[in-house]
Amino acid sequence: MSEGPQASVKPRSGVLRGALWGAALVGVAAVVYIMAQSSTKTPPTVPVATPAAAVKPMSEKLTMATGPVPSPDYTFFDSSGKPMKIADLKGKVVVLNIWATWCAPCVAEMPTLAKLQAAYAGKDVEVVTVSIDSETSATKARLFIARHDPLKFYHDREMKLPFKVNAPGAPTTVIYGRDGLEKARVAGEADWSGPEARALVDKVLAAG
């Protein structure tokens, strides 16, 4: 008679152990899955400034004007909010740079544009960096330019300048001669502190 109760207890004990082992295995599998997902999940992309040395040679992005292309009859604004046009700087070589704070290549090349302007201090060369940031981001753009002396802040409030100069994107830099006509342009990021840039500006400056 004593064998009856023992026989009935053993199966229940076995079932209990099996359930516990099953739960443990499920837990381990869940942990492994979570770890696998964490290791394969792609982190958010963060724009990284490209070192000047890694930028492609300017000659690969440079286009020389083949005909008389005047500067656009388009108004943007200087740091004091005064409206102006490229034609207002006639008599100088103008290095017009179209940029924005949300454009990583634009941000990366800005220090080289500052060095270019500094190299031509006292000469008839004006680097005009025109921000196409929205009105809400204009303060951010102004503060950014302030950190890159001797550059000045200019703002295209309507964000139409890229279309007026047929820019393929930002950054785009257009160089105008003393006569107000386009001489060359560079589509994309460039090292404006390098010898290629200096040679290009010197050529336009010497042409008169």
Radius of gyration: 31 Å
Beta content: 15-25%
CATH class designation of the largest domain: Alpha Beta
Number of helix segments?
A: 5
Quick one: CATH superfamily of the largest domain?
Glutaredoxin
Q: For the terminal residues, how far apart are their CA atoms?
A: 120 Å
Within the largest sheet, what's the order of strands? 1-8-7-4-5-6
Low-confidence stretches: 1-11, 23-53
Describe this structure in words.
The chain has 208 residues and is α/β, with parallel strands linked by helices. It has two domains: 1-45; 57-207, Glutaredoxin, CATH 3.40.30. 38% of the residues lie in helices and 17% in strands. It has five helices and eight strands, in the order H-E-E-E-E-H-E-H-E-H-E-E-H. The chain has helices at 3-40, 104-119, 138-146, 161-164, 195-207, and strands at residues 62-64, 76-77, 83-84, 93-99, 125-131, 153-155, 172-176, 182-187. A six-stranded mixed β-sheet has the order 1-8-7-4-5-6. Strands 2-3 form a two-stranded antiparallel ribbon. Strand 5 (125-131), helix 3 and strand 6 (153-155) form a beta-alpha-beta unit. The longest helix has 38 residues, at 3-40. The protein starts with a helix and ends with a helix.
